Amino acid sequence: MRKVLLVDDERRMLDLLSIYLTPVSFSCIKVTNGNEAIDYLQDHQVDLVLLDVMMPKMDGWETCQQIREFSSVPIIMLTARDEKQDVIKGLKLGADDYVAKPFDEGELMARIEAVFRRTRHLSRIEFNELIWDEDEREVSFRGKKILLTPKEFSIIGILINNINRVFSREQLIEKIWGFETDTEGRTIDSHVRNLREKIRQAGFPIDDHLQTVWGVGYKWI
């Protein structure tokens, strides 16, 4: 069963989307603002985000932009704003599609399937038999799964997707926890230490590739 995160400040719209999606084998998680959506995505895997634009405090555009800092999960914007410039803005910020309200149920389902076809198999990286698979939310080595926490998975994902690029502890915190957090650099160090140990135990020479840049942060080589 595929899991979809519904983000809309109107409960009635959340319920309507759930009525459409549940009968076709979607598990629906409902949140009413962008902060809740980001918090959920940092700790849980979903297959799709349906994101409203016009929300108080943090609108859908800002929410989309922040999600894209740590995840490539497919995002479809759902909004009453269908002016061309709004569509372009949403797509530039990282949305995969844009559907105007009120929408037809059949069109919405067709667009969801089209997004899945376009984004399938685009988030799997293999490095010397170590496989990082965002769709499955798994890391494996020579066919054996390595059990990582969501934060550990995100850290290695950022690094392995940006070979030879140095990320400071502050950059990793912003990408994984967001801008408004009290998380400190030593938390990153703790996650990296646990990550190294788990992958080392699986037999992959992690210390040859995940390297500490003293006084700065980490990089993958």
Give a structural overview:
The chain has 221 residues and is of the alpha/beta class. The protein is 41% helix and 23% strand. Strands 2-1-3-4-5 form a five-stranded parallel β-sheet, sandwiched between helices. A hairpin with a 4-residue loop joins strand 7 (130-133) and strand 8 (138-141). The longest helix is centred in the last third of the chain and has 17 residues, at 185-201. The radius of gyration is 19 Å and the shape is globular. The model has no long low-confidence stretch (mean pLDDT 87).
Question: Which helices and strands, and how do they pair?
Answer:
Elements: E1 2-7, H1 11-21, E2 26-31, H2 34-43, E3 48-52, H3 60-67, E4 75-79, H4 84-92, E5 97-100, H5 105-119, E6 124-127, E7 130-133, E8 138-141, E9 144-146, H6 150-160, E10 167-168, H7 169-177, H8 185-201, E11 210-213, E12 217-220
Parallel strand pairs: 1-2, 1-3, 3-4, 4-5
Antiparallel strand pairs: 6-7, 7-8, 8-9, 10-12, 11-12
Physical arrangement of strands within the biggest beta sheet: 2-1-3-4-5
Beta-strand share of residues = 15-25%
Radius of gyration: 19 Å
> What's the β-strand tally?
12
- Count helical runs: 8
By secondary-structure content and strand pairing, the structural class works out as alpha/beta
Return residue spans where pLDDT drops below 50 for at least 5 consecutive residues.
none
Distance N to C terminus: 36 Å
The overall pLDDT average reads 87
Helix content: 40-55%
Encode the helix/strand succession as letters: EHEHEHEHEHEEEEHEHHEE
Q: Shape, please?
A: globular
Largest sheet: 5 strands, parallel
